[in-house]
């Protein structure tokens, strides 16, 4: 199964929202004009670190890159459950304008596929 998603934080006027969330550290990293001081290389390091913290099981299986403030995730994974928390964490990084994902989830090797089916007993009258 191949899934491509594009998540973007933009206002009606198309200006990126940098999601400082009132954080004093994030405010110091952003200039007054709203243009991030962090370069794409610095954002890539932050995104890679966030991937290791919020989805350690996926950290070695995902390729993380940043271009023009947009984080790009690509790779093959077995379990998509940790992705929800990772997406939230990446979009909250200061200076991130959006998130692009090209991720293949291998359903044949997913943890849910290894769970034994529940067998129910049927009670027949009689």
UniProtKB/TrEMBL annotation:
Residues 1-25 are annotated as: Disordered. This is BON domain-containing protein. It comes from Ralstonia soli.
